[in-house]
TrEMBL record:
Originating organism: Klebsiella pneumoniae
This protein's record includes keyword Transcription regulation: yes
Record's keyword annotation contains Acyltransferase: no
Gene behind the chain: gltC_2
Keyword tags: DNA-binding, Transcription, Transcription regulation
Cited Gene3D superfamilies: 3.40.190.290, Winged helix-like DNA-binding domain superfamily/Winged helix DNA-binding domain
PROSITE patterns: HTH_LYSR (PS50931)
Boundaries of every HTH lysR-type domain copy: 1-58
Molecular-function GO term, any one: DNA-binding transcription factor activity
InterPro entries for this protein: LysR_HTH_N (IPR000847), LysR_subst-bd (IPR005119), WH-like_DNA-bd_sf (IPR036388), WH_DNA-bd_sf (IPR036390)
Protein name per Swiss-Prot or TrEMBL: LysR family transcriptional regulator
Pfam family, one: HTH_1
PANTHER family per UniProt: HTH-TYPE TRANSCRIPTIONAL REGULATOR, HTH-TYPE TRANSCRIPTIONAL REGULATOR CYSL
């Protein structure tokens, strides 16, 4: 007696039709007939009686059915409990990142990690913000790591460089800077013009 035979028996008892039961089980009718026949041989009783093109569950089949239903239900409950426990045992890594990292950098990092054998038992949760707010969340233990700009005078935080981003000056085509400097401009030349710039709670780190 095996699990498939019990599933097949239960389904056939519901339909009392070999073709319909086999179709719903995604198997051939001969495969279903053979499985039921082997089960009947092992039990030593007939579970179904043919009535024309259909079958009818016998009294012995009716007696056996509740035990099969209970057994399958217990197995399903066990499967669900194990899957739930497996999900609960997964490690969740909380990642925070500044907005400019969300389009390419973070997805690439996660995709690369997902190809490693260690990733099967790990899930991720994400949050975005400015470098200062992310650093506060990191200190408070709300996230496990933060991808942000370097912030000086933070002795309790380890900063590891992962990427450099280039900043450019963007102007209208008829702006004086655009007319004077076609490819590049010294920042000193821009100080006389108003800026649309990052807010004060965003940190930019110069590289040399």
């Amino acid at each position: 007696m095996n699990l498939k035979q019990l599933y097949y028996f239960k389904r056939l008892s519901e339909t009392e039709h070999y073709t319909e039961a086999a179709s719903s089980l995604c198997i051939t009718q001969p495969s279903l007939s053979h499985a039921i026949s082997e089960l009947e041989k092992e039990l030593g009783v007939a579970l179904f009686a043919r009535q024309g093109r259909n079958v009818k569950i016998t009294q012995n089949g009716k007696r056996f059915l509740p035990y099969v239903e209970d057994a399958l239900a217990s197995l399903e409950n066990g499967r669900m409990i194990l899957q739930k426990n497996g999900a609960e045992n997964k490690e969740n890594i909380r990642i925070a990142f500044i907005y400019t990292m969300g389009e390419y950098v973070v997805p690439q990092l996660i995709n690369k990690y997902s190809l490693s054998p260690e990733c099967h038992n790990v899930t991720f949760s994400f949050t975005q913000g400015t470098s200062l707010t992310l650093l506060q969340e990191l200190k408070a233990g709300k996230v496990d790591l933060a991808i942000c700009s370097y912030i000086a005078d933070e002795p309790d935080i380890d900063f590891i460089p992962v990427i450099q981003q280039e900043l450019v000056v963007v102007t209208a085509k008829d702006h004086p800077l655009a007319r004077l400097y076609e490819h590049e401009v010294d920042l000193v030349e821009t100080i006389h013009y108003p800026y649309i710039y990052f807010s004060e709670n965003r940190v930019m780190t110069p590289t040399y």
